[in-house]
Amino acid sequence: MEAINANAASLKNKANEILGVNPEDAKLTKSFLLVSFVALLLGGLFGLLQGINRAGLLELPSWLNYYQVLTAHGLLLIVVFSGFFMIGYFYSGLSHTLGGLLPKVRKLGWIGYGLSMFGTVLVVIMVLMNEATVLFTFYPPMMAHPIFYFGLVFVVLGIWSCCIGAFIQVADWRKKHKGQHLPILSFFATGAFVLLLGCTLFVAVEVLFLILPWSLGWVDTINVMLARTLFWAFGHTAVNIWYLTAVSAWYVIVPRVIGGTLWNDTLTRVVVIALVIMNITGGFHHQIVDPGISDTIKYMHVFMSLAIGFPSLMTAYALFVVMERAGRRKGGKGALGWLKKLPWGDVRFLAPFIAMLAFAPAGAGGIAQTTFQLNAVVHNTMWVVGHFHLTLGMSVAMTFFGISYWLIPFISGRVLTPAMNKLGVIQTYIWAAAMVLMAFAMHTAGLFGSPRRTSYTTYGDHAAALGWDPYMLLIGFGAVLLTIGVLIQFYAVIHLMFFAPKGQTEFPIAPKEPGDVTGYWTERWGVWVVLLIIVVAMAYVVPIVDMIVNAPPGSPPIRPW
Amino acid sequence: MMDQFKIGLALFIFLAIPPVASFMESVMVIHMHMQMPMLVIAGLLMAPFFQKQFPNFFEKWNENGIPGILLFIIIISYWLLPRTMDEALSLTSVEIFKFISLPFLAGVPLRDSWKKLSDFSKNFVITLFTIVFLGMGFLYIFVPVQLCNNYLIIEQIALGWAFLLTAVGMIVYLLYVAFVDPSEYE
Ligand code: HEM
Ligand SMILES: [Cu+2]
């Protein structure tokens, strides 16, 4: 009798593990994802305007100028689309792998949602009113309306609420499952939320202590270098968190979709830990041409940036191991025969696969940019824009799209029909082709000197500027194609969320290889956080003290628009 | 074990190469917060070799770990003084003493003692250094005069912040130990 009971209980557990979705947790994730994809839609439409403006085909009206559009595009895509997606996805991962969110965690999630929504709305209103045309980096001494900065504060508060919720969930699970390993997806989530908390601390200091008092007129001037440095400690880390989120799907989800196993549990965790400890200090590579930072410090930071390349290379290796293993088990023969066995017609595989491929040129470009002399060639040119459309617009965004084709049906109690899958595959090809085209054109125009963040101009028909035009036309063409991609993707999301046939969808998590045991030491989050603090201290103490103590006179606000 | 010894020795030799040493000593924080700890780490790595070579010595003189940790504390405290850092730069004999004392009189005894200490003593040592580091941090940040002949005030301030942040790291660790009971999780 007991045995039967135990059996029934474990069966129920199993069923929950595979199929179970807690409806309340699903609602939370659904809300985050909906905001995320609305941001994609709006941001994409703004991107279209930018693209055809830079192609020289559209002059934007004075009530919606290029820089306003660019500010909205940057913020909506790099912050709202990516951030809301990351939180929604990881919260459903926590719920799914840790047996449902605790009620108080769910509450923290909702509080976080409310606060960041409120903040986002304030920010967007200010941008649309042309009161905050400061681009997503909001570098001082350009000064926006104080409400814009208050909006940012609320976004950050919301993020903190979500981070704390995640930590509570993880700690509680570990208490109830002594000696067990945190499931790998939750491990990724923990790392990502630790980084998210760490990096938002920097931007919080920037906004609360430097910018707000200055924008409210309490102080007259601002330390520009310090603000930029604090911003990039945040900005750099943020995009790496979006990347870590995508990587989690490559390691954990993709192997399951192709019917394979995890690569190696311990080493996967090592990659997460390495990315968490070494990430924040990469921020300086965005300031390679900034004055006031000594050569020695810049040199050290080249090293710090390249250090992140190592776990990335491990990732590239790991993913091909996983794919080859799965392909061979399905009977793939020869050096490359296994490739044929992969499910190329499945959008849940195809989209993240192309995303991974994109990371190869994107990473190589990143290594070039982080090098002092090469950076001098491409700094602030369209090259950089090409680079982050490969990293974010392809690697991250396409992975998120791939996730959406199972995560949204999963949380909505619906299924991905073959027709929708087909549409997804088409969307994937359109998006990939368009991004490659646009990014190629951006890189090339950048090498020829075309500046970024500059609305269309021929500089009085200067020959060099006219030479960029063919590439600019390509950018415009890419932008039109991409907009078609955005529309299809948005349609797919809405359809899967509200209209697809009802049914149950799997949350695909790959099993371990038999005999793969995990080192318990990987669970020592206290140690990782201390190491993180030490590395950050090593990187930031000397330059920041220098920036404060040897500061030039501060800058009064400037409004160039 | 031999591997650890070799790594430690290699690290020691690397740190002693004149261009490496003079680069690390050219920046105050790197001198105190990288070169010196790395010398101690070199000693930590080499310790098992000495423990094997001279088991009786360690057994006899460091039975409960207290003498070793006291020696460690004394050596480290000595090197926390601004004056000693200055002298290491000006007097070759002091520089040599630094390269001997930190690995062999701090690193080796630390490794030999740490396992012998009770949890209470371990946390006591960390707490002690947290307090000392907080003190040193405030000292270096707020003292209005240049303490070293060889380093400018700006470097002193950077060093002060490095001390404070190290102390913050240790406080995080101590809080973790105080409030998180690993047996609840493992
Ligand atoms: C419909 C798809 C998209 C199009 C047509 C597009 C196009 C553009 C263009 C033309 C620029 C302006 C370059 C300049 O003048 O400096 C730009 C900037 C930018 N895009 Fe996109 N993009 C798209 C999607 C994305 C996605 C998915 C992301 C990120 C997830 C993204 C992130 C950014 C960022 C961060 C900037 C920089 C804004 C700034 O410099 O302040 N874009 N994009
Ligand atoms: Cu970066």
> So, CATH architecture of chain A?
Up-down Bundle
Low-confidence stretches of chain A: 1-19
Q: What spatial form of chain B do the alpha-carbon principal axes imply?
A: globular
Radius of gyration of chain B: 17 Å
Mass-distribution shape of chain A: globular
- The radius of gyration of chain A is 23 Å
Q: Would you kindly provide a written description of the structure presented here, covering whatever features stand out?
A:
The complex is a heterodimer of chains A (561) and B (186). The N terminus of chain A is likely disordered. Chain A has a single domain, classed as Up-down Bundle (Cytochrome C Oxidase, Chain A). Chain A has 16 helices and no strands. In chain A, 52% of the residues are buried. By secondary structure, chain A is an all-alpha fold. Chain B has 186 residues and is mainly α. Chain B has one domain. Helix content of chain B is 85%, strand content 0%. Chain B is built from ten helices and no strands. In chain B, helix 2 packs across helix 3, helix 3 crosses helix 7 and helix 3 packs across helix 9. Chain B is globular, with a radius of gyration of 17 Å. Chain B starts with a helix and ends with a helix. The model of chain B has no long low-confidence stretch (mean pLDDT 91). At the A-B interface, helix 16 of A face helix 3, helix 9 and helix 10 of B. Protoporphyrin IX containing FE binds next to helix 2, helix 3, helix 13 and helix 15 of chain A.
